[in-house]
Amino acid sequence: MEVETTAPGPPEIPENVAVPAVEPPHMLSRRSALAEFAELLLVTMLLALFGTTFIVQAFKIPSPSMEPTLLIGDHVFVNKFIFGGRGAWYEKLLPYRAVRRGDVIVFKFPFDDHPHYVKRVIGVPGDKVRIINGDVYVNGSRLHEPYVVHDPTYEDPFGDNFPPMNHDLIEIAARREWADQILDHVQNGELVVPPDHYFVLGDNRDRSLDSRYWGFVDRDAIMGRPILIYWSVQATSEDYSDRGIGSVLHGIGQTFMHLSSRTRWHRMFREVH
User: Fold this and answer.
1) Smallest Cα–Cα separation from 124: which of 76, 179, 83?
2) What is the sign of the dihedral through the CA atoms of 150, 155, 161 and 162?
3) What letter does residue 10 receive in the DSSP assignment?
4) DSSP string, 109-167
5) What is the DSSP letter of 210?
6) What is the CATH code of the structural domain delimited by 61-271?
7) How many Cα atoms sit within 13 Å of 238 on the Cβ side?
8) Whole-structure pTM value
9) Could you give the CA distance from residue 269 to residue 173 in angstroms, rounded to a whole number?
10) At 105, which helix (H) or strand (E)?
11) Per-residue pLDDT for the chain (273 aa), expressed as one digit of tens each?
12) What is the C-alpha separation between 228 and 134, in angstroms, rounded?
């Protein structure tokens, strides 16, 4: 007995039932690639924002006050994480440390819209600082400062013998805010660094406006420590004095035009000490 068979036909679709459309494979790939790119860009931006906020930030040196350690035109990475501790219990698990005498630091200047300055820490809280004929003494001992340069033709009766006891000289040389309080921190001819403050000097000792002339650096003003010169270009202070958009664009153009000849290749990737 033969049984008649028929090939099954397509299932019937009831009326008024929506059928999902199938997008072509290339449409799915394009949308997936765009989404991945947007996600990667967002993550990169967030990491960069986190890094520059909490870990590392780039700065350039516009003045000769830290020569020869840092030259005008040096571009440095600043470790913003190293001095982050405030004494909490969990900080023992993190690579924080206290600010030390001899550290080069970046900080916000106490006055004038708080620009960033870079100097070297000479006195930490409790230290007694005195300068005699240009030589620095801390707690009675002369500091060994191989990083310092002096101009033998330059004389500064205020900065070379500090703290001065001459009120007239203080009024002339020191910033007003500092002149009004400097003698409050002097004991037996020595300047005593108060708690949570630091006394800083430039390595180019005769060409540096530092704590001698405007006062202490507050602990909360310290941003971090320069750790690496990632690029260095021959420049002058005048190249950084005009921050208008036209001057900035001109400077960038000149730098790229003379990139090879103006770059100080021997200073690239040099650690800062």
Assistant:
1) 83
2) negative
3) P
4) -SSTT--EEEEEEEE-TT-EEEEETTEEEETTEE---TT-B--TT---TTTSSBS---H
5) -
6) 2.10.109.10
7) 0
8) 0.78
9) 38
10) strand 104-108
11) 443 444 455 555 455 544 454 545 544 455 566 666 565 556 555 545 544 545 789 999 999 999 999 999 999 999 998 897 666 666 677 778 899 999 999 999 999 999 999 999 999 999 999 999 999 999 999 999 999 999 988 989 999 999 998 899 999 999 999 999 999 999 999 999 999 999 999 999 999 999 999 999 999 999 999 999 999 999 888 877 766 666 556 666 666 676 778 899 999 999 999
12) 29
Nearest to 116 by CA among 223, 209, 212: 223
Beta strands 217-218 and 141-142, pairing class:
unpaired
With tokens 């930490």, the residue in question is 124
CA-to-CA dists, residue 95 to 11, 92, 104, angstroms:
68, 8, 18
Using CA atoms, how far residue 158 sits from 31, 113, 226, 268, in Å, is 69, 26, 29, 37
Q: Is 243 helix (H, G, I), strand (E, B) or coil?
A: coil
CA distance 240 to 229: 18
Residues facing 226 on adjacent strands: 78
State whether the Cα torsion 212-218-223-224 is positive or negative.
Answer: positive
Alpha helices, DSSP H only, in the chain? 25-50, 167-173, 176-179, 211-214, 238-241, 245-257, 259-262
